[in-house]
């Protein structure tokens, strides 16, 4: 049993659609969880004017009846309220008015290469789909995956560890699920209030200088069973699937698993997680440098992944570009934009990790009904003597 996860829609079109297939029948889902995650995606100091227009909610058009999945594909739609201001420019059908083309590609965006690849003279045909607005559909679908994982004892959380030059100091103390109880109340979704204040000030300073700011988020999955994924082939290695999913998020340029970015500088004795055993705990580790992944499989420890996000390419003081209609020097396109979306990117990463892990659970435990999946998981954990933590 495998899953599929597809989105459709443009940034200023009528709306965004997510179709997700492969979740088991009988799973109870709540509309409030989907809408809550959509609202969380809009959080964070440094967001622009679009967030004042959109209040994202999801409409179910297929696959759910009376709060339970029916086993078929689920279709979710998120309307773009801003479409009323763009209806002439983004109407699916021809309009009487003359709509000017956009010829000013932004450095760092998909604009120029996309125009080459898809044979268009209007950059808007590329930038509308390349926009991070698309991630609203991912978060809606990810919320369903999250509810499936919650039913199997898995919880996913995220937080911001760096914005620009301001970073949370390294800590030897591993994070626990309870540490995230109020993370969404912080203006940049940072767990360290002192560092958070510095991050907010850094965003303010850079915004006044007409700059955008990148950073790093961390996403953690608690309660995973060991043995998800496989060492057998490259495409079944879970670390590769996770890295690809997180790196697919707009503006993410790097993914680290566990202590990944720090491991090359360490000797082997400080790079791995020693294995211990006791009658009370069974097999266990005292460190989690691997980030809960060894040989392409989960170890049962919390799964940790970090994503490095570049500054957004739409600047209030545009960079130099070229008008593709005249090939003359020009300033890049300037549209309404955010200064910093690292806090929101963490929420999107939760959705992407939720899909990859839900797919891994379906792959390993199958089951047409949620009770079948639970029973298979219980049987497996009993066979290997694993107590969920």
From TrEMBL:
Gene Ontology MF annotations: chorismate synthase activity; FMN binding
Pfam families, A to Z: Chorismate_synt
GO biological process terms, semicolon-separated: amino acid biosynthetic process; aromatic amino acid family biosynthetic process; chorismate biosynthetic process
GO cellular component term, pick one: cytosol
Biochemical pathway: Metabolic intermediate biosynthesis; chorismate biosynthesis; chorismate from D-erythrose 4-phosphate and phosphoenolpyruvate: step 7/7
Keyword Manganese: no
Top-level enzyme category: lyase
Protein name: chorismate synthase
EC number: 4.2.3.5
The species this protein was found in: freshwater metagenome
Keyword field contains Nucleotidyltransferase: no
Keywords: Amino-acid biosynthesis, Aromatic amino acid biosynthesis, FAD, Flavoprotein, FMN, Lyase, NADP
Family label: Belongs to the chorismate synthase family.
